[in-house]
Amino acid sequence: MAPDGQTLAPNVYDAEPIPEAARAEIDRLLSSGDLFRYTAPADAPVALLEAEFAALLGSRYALAVSSCSAALFLSLKALDLPKGAKVLIPAFTFAAVPSSVVHADCEPVLVEVGENYRVDMGDFAQKLPDADAVMISHMRGHTSDMDAIMALCDAAGVPVIEDAAHSLGTVWGGRNIGTIGRVGCFSFQSYKLVNAGEGGILITDDPEIAARAIIMSGAYETNWKKHPGLTNSCAHWQNKLPLYNLRMQNLSAAVIRPQLPLVADRVEKGRAGHDRVAKALNRSAHLVVPDALGPEERAPDSIQFNLTGGWSDAEARDFQTAAKARGVAVQVFGLSEGNARAFWNWQFLGEVPELPQTRAMLMRACDVRLPTRLTEPELDYIAAAIVDAAAEVRG
């Protein structure tokens, strides 16, 4: 608060603090030097995290790795896709997603995304017959129509991987996001709901996928025996698969584990904060926050909204400047230089296809962080700053 009692623009870039409960375990690990996940005969922090995360999501198996990107890559490799396999991905995602596809010796096929940030089902259905796999990014926590996607993919026999980096705690039709496809992948990077700086985890109910991913993650020799319930499958794949060494280490798990019991509360606070700001933004004639699809119960820690009513690029940039002058950083995805979420910047793909619907959305779609720790006055300040900046530019 300012000296006169007015709310200052909140700092939305500080990560969520690490619970005090992590300190004792970190001190123990540092004193022992026991940082490698396979040193202990049993109950290493990474192993405990895997069991706890699987229980939290309701999946049979979990494998903790170095990042969500590593989880996506391992998921593709564990599906045993042929070299050059075509993998459908939404054109609105982070560059790490097509990168994981390329790294797995597969070919990304970009699918149009609508103004509501979700997969265009018409374009998806048109491109699915040529696909070997589908990787659905629930980008910024926005869930595409998973009922329609799974119906089409199941009928075609095409496996689905869920990139749920932004969606821990999101529920679709009563099912946890990440448990609907063959594999679900989550992130523990600092700007996610659970903060470990870096880290990721994949979940699956398929023992063969789990076993192949475990071996390739770096469970060399007989370290796979420390993953319960997979002895036969892992024994079959030992020495038959390459080792990519993408393991999580024990310090990361020690940071993550005390945060898992906090997920439900963070989801509740994040949803309340998002909806409070969305209600204020939707009262403006210049802004619109797209509605969630019916079966979705979101777990947001940011808000996305569109500039509506024929904004020019110059006006959109002026809006960013006006919001920044009020202490609120607004990112317009398509106008941010080199933005890793704008598909035309993925030059590593070679000739990037033109996707007019996704491009138009990105040129007017805005992004603002809303950490779950924000108070109602801070949320109201952000909402008012955005609305006032839009009014200043559009008059």
Task: Give an overview of the whole structure.
Helix 2 (45-57) packs across helix 9 (250-256), helix 10 packs parallel to helix 13 (376-394) and helix 11 packs across helix 13. The protein has two domains: 21-261, Type I PLP-dependent aspartate aminotransferase-like (Major domain) (Aspartate Aminotransferase, domain 2), CATH 3.40.640; 262-394, Aspartate Aminotransferase, domain 1 (Alpha-Beta Complex), CATH 3.90.1150.10. It is an alpha/beta fold and 395 residues long. The protein has a seven-stranded mixed beta sheet, with helices on both faces. 37% of the residues lie in helices and 14% in strands. It starts with 20 loop residues before the first helix and ends with a helix. The protein is built from 13 helices and 14 strands. The model has no long low-confidence stretch (mean pLDDT 96). The protein has helices spanning 21-32, 45-57, 68-78, 96-103, 121-127, 146-156, 207-218, 231-237, 250-256, 263-281, 313-325, 356-364, 376-394, and strands spanning 61-65, 86-90, 107-111, 133-137, 160-163, 171-172, 175-176, 183-187, 200-204, 287-288, 296-297, 302-307, 331-332, 365-369.
